[in-house]
Design brief:
The protein is built from 18 helices and 2 strands. The chain is mainly alpha-helical. It has 2 domains: 184 residues, MFS general substrate transporter like domains (Growth Hormone, Chain: A, Up-down Bundle), CATH 1.20.1250.20; 220 residues, MFS general substrate transporter like domains (Growth Hormone, Chain: A), CATH 1.20.1250. The chain has a two-stranded antiparallel sheet. The model has no long low-confidence stretch (mean pLDDT 88).
């Protein structure tokens, strides 16, 4: 097996683990653990909480003391044990703590997976920029396959989803230990504690433009997990209505939601054109407006005659997610000084997948509970509330964030 194929298998399994339970956890907690919206939102928020510090901590370990592939393997082995534990949990409070612990070991593996891929390709003399994206896309394929497997086998509302994820985690742990050695790099100087945790990038907050950008990154990050947490429970609730209970969207809600991930792979290809033509500010505004439609279409759609509206929402998700994450990352790359670029990217991730995702999980759960009366959730009001939130961001973003598009600089940044 050549090295590219080996890395494809590693990336496939990395996101297969996540896809096995991420989309269906909310529905499982509602139906089997009788959780409230707030409890589900907080449980999804654990991924943001873990992202605040664990990726940096595991990165330091891999940079200084232990081979990255070994750290990756140990994290997945510990994660597997926690996922097996999750399959035995019978109450939402314990589930919160188990998923928090699992997130503390799983979230760092996303960066470690990339690190192992980069080092392995570099050691083989393979161009990372051109070789890695086609490898990484198999991670998205793995996520989609996992979603479909759990759905088609009827495991979305029972604990088998965790067994599937845990089994894949054990396989990936063993597989990681067999990857080429990624020995910690020797450093000419000792890093300060501030540099180790990427805190040197905090200097960017002194610049008004960057402070505003990171604020909106946090506010948009709050939208990232909302449909992961509540998309399936929303579709499952249609099963209580006779006219919808036998529709495809209810019986195979995971598959319907997976169109979102399929859309991601397609919109990635469109990003270079939009960035060159319109610039980062417009592309990010398009992303925010896409979030308005993502939530708004959920509010007016249904698995019957309104199925096309739900499908359109899934397709729009690719634009909402990719245009913000990738264009935002490119903006940070251009604006940060070379010596703090890696730290700046880490700060971007903390603001979006850390602080933003945690606040989004917590607050969205409160919104769901607010519009729940006697166990009946008013999904129209819930989704319109989220759409209204995104609409407010869409109105204020272009007014507050001042940035002039430099077509040549943007083309050069994409090229490099």
């Amino acid at each position: 097996m050549n090295i590219k194929t080996r890395l494809i298998v590693m990336n496939f399994l990395e996101f297969f683990i996540w896809g096995s339970w991420l989309i269906s956890l909310g529905g499982y907690m509602f139906s089997s653990l009788h959780a409230t919206g707030a409890e589900i939102g907080l449980t999804y928020g654990t991924m943001g909480l873990a992202s605040l510090f664990m990726p940096a901590l595991m990165g330091i370990i891999a940079d200084r003391w232990i081979n990255a592939e070994k750290v990756l393997g140990v994290c997945h082995l510990l994660g597997a044990g926690l996922l097996f534990w999750a399959s035995k949990v019978d109450n939402p409070t314990t589930m919160y703590w188990v998923i928090l612990l699992n997130s503390m070991f799983f979230m760092p593996t996303i960066a470690l997976n990339n690190t192992v891929s980069y080092i392995t390709l570099e050691k083989k003399g393979i161009d990372i920029v051109s070789a890695f994206p086609p490898i990484r896309v198999w991670g998205t394929v793995g996520f989609i396959v996992a979603v479909w497997v759990v759905d088609l086998l009827g495991w979305t509302l029972n604990s088998m989803q965790f067994i599937v994820a845990a089994t894949a985690a054990v396989l990936l742990a063993i597989y990681s230990f067999s990857m080429p050695s990624c020995i910690p790099a020797k450093r000419n100087k000792k890093l300060s504690l501030t540099e180790s945790f990427g805190l040197d990038a905090l200097v960017l907050f002194k610049r008004k433009k960057m402070a505003i950008f990171f604020l909106f990154a946090m506010l948009l990050g709050a939208a990232l997990q909302i449909t992961n947490a509540f998309g399936k429970p929303f579709l499952d609730d249609f099963g209580t209505i006779a006219a919808y209970k036998d529709t495809f969207g209810v019986k195979h809600s995971n598959i319907l939601i997976s169109i979102s991930q399929i859309s991601e792979t397609l919109f990635i290809l469109a990003i270079p054109f939009f960035l060159k033509r319109f610039g980062i500010k417009i592309v990010m505004l398009i992303s925010i407006i896409a979030w308005v439609f993502r939530f708004g279409l959920f509010a007016v759609g249904n698995p019957g005659a309104g199925l096309w509206l739900l499908i359109l929402s899934m397709i729009i998700y690719g634009m909402a997610f990719d245009f913000f994450n990738i264009s935002g990352s490119l903006f940070v790359e251009r604006e940060a000084e070379p010596k703090i670029r890696a730290s700046a990217q880490g700060l971007f991730m903390v603001m979006t997948n850390g602080v933003g995702a945690y606040l989004g999980g917590w607050l969205s759960g409160l919104v769901v509970d607010y519009f729940t009366v006697d166990g009946v959730r008013n999904w129209n009001n819930i989704w319109f509330s989220f759409a209204g939130y995104a609409l407010v961001l869409a109105v204020f973003f272009p007014l507050i964030f001042n940035y002039k598009h430099d077509r040549k600089a943007t083309i050069d940044a994409i090229a490099h």
